[in-house]
Amino acid sequence: MTAQHDGRPMTVMVVDDHPMWRDAVARDLAEAGFDVVATAGDGPQAVRRAKAAGPDVLVLDLNLPGLPGVEVCKEVLADRPELRVLVLSASGEHGDVLEAVKSGATGYLLKSASTEELLDAVRRTAAGDPVFTPGLAGLVLGEYRRLAGEPAPTAADQPAVPQLTERETEVLRLVAKGLSYKQIAERLVISHRTVQNHVQNTLGKLQLHNRVELVRYAIERGLDDA
Predict the structure, then answer these.
(1) What is the rounded distance in angstroms from the CA atom of residue 157 to the CA atom of residue 124?
(2) CATH superfamily placement of domain 9-142
(3) What is the topology classification, in CATH, of domain 164-219?
(4) Lateral strand order in the sheet of 11-15
(5) For residue 14, what is the enclosing H or E element?
(6) Which of 65, 70, 143, 171 is least buried, going by the fewest C-beta atoms within 10 A?
(7) Cβ burial 27-39 (10 Å sphere, 16+ → b, else e)
(8) Is 164 within 8 Å of 170 (Cβ atoms)?
């Protein structure tokens, strides 16, 4: 069965400096129906190939020669902000997790995860859902709450907050509460595609790049408590 994204095979790139691990992950993804369009074994190679191949999801190790994974993430997302990045790392250190999220990763999975957990994480990452190994999600949310509590820089020429529709605000509030797109669709009795459209529209209006930034924006405005 082919993994689909927007009606076509879902494309994935795997970056890891250990050839056996990299090949095994790529093989598991290909056997599950993903289209593995590229692999890379070091940071600079990862940046070049990700820009050339344009995958839907980048499965990225953090510990890379030549350029650290967080820098790869920043560089690739600067070129292709619509790309989803799932970090697959041996490290569960809080600092590594937060650094990865701040660099733009939308998910963080430990290498101790099962093949099924990895496949599910890649699918959910492609759909825009934040995916974290159990125990790490609370850490990330807590960090964004802390950041939201810090005073924001004020500027006299700060642009007015873009106007969201009532439905977009409703979807944003549920995103901030940690619901998946599927759960939001069921809650609002609308299609999964409609939820995605509302989120994409909201990202565009707010000039944000991914769902993690969207959650932070919502928490800053107290929407998760509404």
Answers:
(1) 38
(2) Response regulator (3.40.50.2300)
(3) Arc Repressor Mutant, subunit A (1.10.10)
(4) 35-40, 11-15, 57-60, 84-89, 107-110, 131-132
(5) strand 11-15
(6) 65
(7) ebbeebebbbbbb
(8) no
- Asked if residue 60 lies in contact with residue 87, where contact means CB atoms within 8 angstroms, the answer is yes
Beta-carbon count within 10 A of 115 CB: 13
Tens-binned pLDDT, residue by residue, of the chain (226 aa): 556 555 678 999 999 999 999 999 999 999 999 999 999 999 999 999 999 999 999 999 999 999 999 999 999 988 888 899 999 998 888 888 888 888 889 889 999 999 999 999 999 999 888 888 877 777 766 766 665 565 544 444 444 456 788 888 888 888 877 777 888 889 998 988 888 888 888 888 887 777 777 777 887 777 766 5
Tokens of 130: 């934040």
Neighbour tally for 92: CB within 10 Å? 15
The residue with tokens 């509460």 is: 177
Residue range(s) of every CATH 3.40.50.2300 domain in the chain = 9-142
Instruction: List the structure tokens of 36.
Output: 């593995």
199 neighbors 181 (Cβ within 8 angstroms): yes
Structure tokens at 52: 């050339």
Q: What is the tally of helices (H) and strands (E) in the chain?
A: 10, 8
CATH 1.10.10.10 positions along the chain are 164-219
Residue the block writes with tokens 């709450």 = 145
**To which residue do tokens 């967080």 refer?**
70
pTM summary value: 0.66
